[in-house]
Write a structure and sequence with these properties.
Elements lengths: L2 E9 L5 E4 L1 E2 L2 E5 L5 E3 L5 E3 L1 E7 L5 E2 L1 E2 L2 E6 L4 E3 L3 E9 L4 E7 L14 H23 L5 H17 L3 H9 L5
Antiparallel strand pairs: 1-12, 2-10, 3-8, 4-7, 5-6, 9-10, 10-11, 12-13
Helix pairs in contact: 1-2, 1-3
Length: 178
């Protein structure tokens, strides 16, 4: 009996992933003759020529909380850490066996420790935003509590590796209420 194997990126509930969200830089051209006009409220609006040059070689995955963002065919969004690789083995009689394993790509590694106070502050604020934002996303059912917990754990791990634990704790400590 012969078997064939194929692989699919899926959500943990089995939903097939259709696309990775990408950020593609572009340059929208302004009208050559009159590139700005009054908006009637004391400001100005750009006047577009109608064309945009896209720079596909410079595209980057869209990331949230250091995880690449994906979507299914219905447009539902998933973080990379919420995905699995489905290994689908089929035989010539039409039988299929599906095994899954975690998808470990699509998650950015920690940054190198910042050498300046400003760099450290900016990075600590970014990490604090992961904690605050993921808490907010759970409240609005944008992510699962499991995803939030994973993001919080990674945030603390990254803060430790990057030497920012005390600074992150101080930032988050100012937000706690009685």
């Amino acid at each position: 009996m012969q078997t064939t194997t194929r692989y699919e990126l899926r959500a943990k509930d089995g939903t097939t992933i259709a696309a990775q969200w990408d950020l593609i830089p572009g340059k929208a051209h302004l009208n050559e003759e009159e590139n700005i006009t009054p908006d009637g409220q004391g400001g100005f609006d750009p006047e577009w020529q109608g064309g945009t040059e896209m720079y596909y070689d410079a595209q980057e995955p869209e990331r949230r909380y250091a995880e690449t963002l994906y979507c299914d065919y219905a447009g539902n969004e998933y973080l990379a850490g919420d995905l699995v690789i489905a290994e689908i083995t089929s035989d010539d009689e039409g039988n299929e066996e599906v095994t899954t394993r975690p998808y470990l790509q699509g998650i950015m590694p920690p940054h190198a420790p910042q050498s300046t106070p400003g760099g450290r502050n900016i990075r600590a604020l970014e990490l604090a935003q992961w904690v605050i934002g993921s808490d907010q996303d759970v409240l609005f059912n944008e992510i699962t509590p499991e995803a939030r917990d994973r993001i919080h754990t990674r945030t603390l791990e990254y803060a430790q590796v990057e030497g920012l634990t005390d600074l992150l704790d101080a930032i988050l400590g100012t937000l706690q209420t009685e």
